Amino acid sequence: MGEKASDGSRQALNRADMSHMPTTFHSHANSAGRTLAGIGGVLLFCLAACGKPGAPAEGPAPASLAKADPLIEAVQPVAKGVRVNLRYTQPDVAGDSVRAAARAVRQIARAVQAGAPDLPPGAATITVDVYGVDVDKFGKRTPARFFESDFNVEDLKALDLKTKGPAGALNTAIDLRIDHAGIDPINAWCMRYPHAGGEYCNMAGD
Q1: Phi and psi at residue 90, to the nearest 5°
Q2: Is-above-0.85 flag for pTM?
Q3: Alpha carbon of 192 to those of 118, 188, 189: distances in Å?
Q4: How far is 140 from 94, CA to CA, in rounded Å?
Q5: Which of 5, 41, 50, 162 reaches 20 to 30 Å from 74, CA-CA?
Q6: pLDDT tens profile 99-138
Q7: Which of 73, 84, 155 is nearest to 119 (CA)?
Q8: In the chain, what's the furthest Cα-to-Cα distance?
Q9: Rounded to an integer, what distance in angstroms lies between the CA atom of residue 114 and that of residue 123?
Q10: How far apart, in whole angstroms, are the C-alpha atoms of residue 199 and residue 206?
Q11: At 148, is the secondary structure helix, strand, or coil?
Q12: CB atoms < 10 A from the CB of 1, how many?
């Protein structure tokens, strides 16, 4: 009987101890829940307030056509304006040479709008020649001209650089002549950016 009473006492004691556990568990759970909710609120606020980082601000406009872009090798006066030679030094991958040329054309437009001193007075046209590395089916690499484009100087002066990116600058071309080595790069770029480079690609298809 003594042992039963003792067991009963222990059972009663255990029940008494356990009676406090639910309250303690809920208290910790509520505290953890409030902490998680607070963290979640901070994250949501940051996502809403911070948003996506803005585009980096452009630096000063190029001081001249020759310094407009690292790809530019030479600026040569011609009858109606100037010829700008660009060289893309790597074999083209998926139209990267055209993409690089588009960035250079936009920089040329910035230089024109800033009054580039190497643009002759009265120049009407800027012809951009793009050279690259042609790779044949055997993997042989050969320097070659890819294509050349004509740009009206007045169009470049009027280009809205706040809304037009590189493809928008390339789209202002008034003529496009493609060499054999430039067919694949132009086609690849037009497949990658069918909407952005629509007008330029339409000329390529003519």
Answers
A1: -110, 155
A2: no
A3: 34, 6, 5
A4: 18
A5: 162
A6: 999 999 999 999 999 999 999 999 999 999 999 999 988 9
A7: 84
A8: 122
A9: 15
A10: 11
A11: strand
A12: 5
